[in-house]
Structures are given as structure tokens and as C-alpha cells.
Amino acid sequence: MIRCHCDLRYWLACFLLIGCALVASAEAAAPSPPNPSTFNEKELFAYKAKGHGSAAGQVFLRAVSGKAVTQAGASIVLIPTSSYTRAWFDKQVRESACPSKSGSSSTEVPTAQSSVVECLRTVMDHVLTDKRLLPYLRVTRANPTGHFWFTKVPAGRYYVVSLLEGSGGAHQDERAVGIAWLTLELDADEKAINLVVTDCKSSLC
Description:
Elements: H1 2-29, E1 53-59, E2 61-62, E3 68-69, E4 75-80, H2 83-94, H3 109-128, E5 138-141, E6 147-153, E7 156-164, E8 178-186, E9 191-197
């Protein structure tokens, strides 16, 4: 009788060991979840060719006074939406990774503005200097009133992003600094007009 119990325990232990080995093997074989910030060029192939759509609008920042501040010659970048660019946008732009210069005294303003501009340039350089992404970006410049145009754009989802650096003038409105942005979904042959690209401090976003 004692031997019977020993045999039973032996076989039970064997079954447990085999079961654990099978579970471990299955877990090792299961693919790890994709990293959302990993660059996957397959998501971007459709954005490389010329399309038949267009996008036009105005880019500006909201000054403390409420005035719309534009910057002639500011670059506006049309960035295709992908897992890689979405991770960048959500972390660096939507959540505003750079500190705000608001609340600085008049003597601190030039230094504070310079610090913010450098931070924002770093944010933009993350995509503008990525050689893998460059073939899929479209860049244009704002005219003196902040208006811009994109032509021959393929259908898809985009981020419209622009860094406005301010003029460095004495008036507070002239020192408006920030990233203006807009999310855009463009159908084939669609001509999107009157787009508002701003820093989303108002109900316009």
C-alpha cells in the first residue's frame, strides 16, 4: 500500500513537470507585442507616391492677449500617421514635452524663450532628421499671413505640424513660441481648405 502511494506521487510529479515545460515552451513561442515606437516602413509606402489631394489653411499661435500670431516663412510639415509618428506626436507634441515660458519675469524672458525654442527644435528634429522618414514628409512654408498650401497629396491620415519661434521683440505678442498642429484625414482627390493649425489653447482644436 505504501509503495502504491509512492508510485502515485511519482507519476503526479512527472505530470506536473511535463505540464510546466509545455507552458514555458508555449510562452517562449508566443510573439512579443509590437513596440508602438518601432519604425515600420510598410505603414508608409502609400504616402510616398504623388496623390491628387490638396490641403490649405493658416498656421498661427494664440498670444496671451488672444491675438493670432503668425510667422512668415515658418515651416509646415505634413507627417503621415503611423505607429512610429503617433508615438512621437502623442509624447512630444500633444502632451507638450517642452516647458512653458509663461510666468517668467521681463528680465528672464529672452533666456526662457531661447530655452523653449531649443527644446521645441529638438522635438521637431526627431522627425525632420530621421532619414527613414524623410521620403514620406512634405514641407512647405507660411506666407506673411501664415497661410500655406500642399498639393499632390495622397489620401491618408496626417499630422500638420509647425514650429513658430517668435520674433524676439519687446512686445509680449511678438514672443509667442510653440508648436502649432492639426490632425487631418484626407480622402483621394479631396481639397481640404481653411484648415486651422494652432497651438490648441482655444476651442479651435
